[in-house]
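Quick one, T. Sequence first:
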Amino acid sequence: MSNIAQGLAILFIIGGTFFSVVGVVGLVRFPDIFTRLHATGKVGIFGVVLLLIAVAISTPLGWGKALILILLLVISGPVTASALASAAYRIGIRPVSAVQDDLQQTIKKP
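Structure tokens:
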């Protein structure tokens, strides 16, 4: 592997690790499940995608698998976070300090 490819892989590893750490900090620091899901759903997936790009650069035969994994993560990550947030709202967990609650009128209480 050339020095340029190694340098790029290292940069992607540093970037992916940074975004993954920011996602974990958001998970620990944010007050409710909705903001925590936003932190882990957006930032965490971006960090994993950067790490997969670093793996694909360092092992050229892994581009196909890395692209499939990236595609699956980008598709399933936001859908999963949205489903978890919807389920949390439906069982009665409310945002800590919501400015506007659009779901309050659409979801019927039993």
